[in-house]
Amino acid sequence: MLEMPEIGFARSVDKHNVNRVILVDWVEGSALFGDGEISQSDVIDILQEKGIYSSEDFAAEILSDTWSELRRRSQWMDKGYPFRLGSRTIEKTSDSWEDAPAHAFCLFLTFALYYRTAVTHWVKQNQEDYIGQGHLFERLSEESLSALGWNVHRTGWASGIQTARFQQIVTDVADHLRESFINNPIVALYESANEKGLDIVCHLPFRDERGGKPVYLMQCASGKDWTEKLHTPVISTWQGLINFSSSPQRAFAMPFALEDTEFYRRCKEVDGMLLDRYRLLSASASGADWASVALKTDIIAWLTPRLSALPESTV
């Protein structure tokens, strides 16, 4: 298994002082990136060795909850879930994480928050570039939305990969949505802006391709500062740039999983559509291989050297 995460675990005697989402992610990641089968007993052994639990029976309570959450995640992804679940075991369905690159990528981005000391050390040694990470996550979000039936346009701007002028980006967004009026004097005011927080535009397609349809302006956030971006893009700013036929809404995509209470709280902050890890990965529920060969290849190439940053348990 992977080493127990640096955060989310505190001494538990009469009350469970363990973050359940982090625990579930840890179990999933250990199964995906490790070898063989993991049992509840394996996890309990580490929790006891680390002094989190002294009572095996009390630890078994939270492991029972953990397996219930794993089963729920399995239902969300259906045929695309890369694990076999037993009553007290979890095992990946193939020999390598490379057969589930999108899932592995999202988990690694999550683990970068859980293992900050180890990952930060790796980043300093290798002069990490976060632009590539953001670009990959935007592509993953784009392909997932397309597989889920959305018509998608990725600006390629906020990731820093493209250098298109802001005027052209606004024009491309308007053309994609079949909106004819652009407020050019207002656009000119933002010509030197670094970003307006718009990574993806998506809408449900109609055959007539006219306006007056549900439109989402999406921010894709894959790093530790994701909570600071929940209110972007600013819808009123874009309504000043483009005269939308109907008011667009905000959307927010991230590679992290949230427990239900926080999920609904963050939905309120986004005031729109929230796509967490399992909404993005639910594109695989039909059994279709939704990620392109190019995306999978690039994720594997990006992720392979970085997995060495994840510490393995010595228990």
SSE inventory with pairings:
Layout: H1 20-33, E1 38-39, H2 40-49, H3 56-77, E2 83-85, E3 89-92, H4 101-114, H5 116-126, H6 130-147, E4 151-154, H7 166-177, H8 184-189, E5 200-203, E6 215-220, H9 235-241, E7 249-253, H10 260-270, E8 272-275, H11 277-281, H12 293-306
Parallel strand pairs: 6-7, 7-8
Antiparallel strand pairs: 1-3, 2-3, 4-5, 5-6
Helix pairs in contact: 1-3, 1-4, 2-3, 4-5, 4-12, 6-12
Structure explained in plain terms:
By secondary structure, the protein is an alpha/beta fold. Helix content is 46%, strand content 10%. It is built from twelve helices and eight strands. The strands form two sheets. Strands 4-5-6-7-8 form a five-stranded mixed β-sheet, sandwiched between helices. A hairpin with a 3-residue loop joins β2 and β3 (89-92). It is elongated and about 65 Å long. The N and C termini lie close together (9 Å). The mean pLDDT is 90.
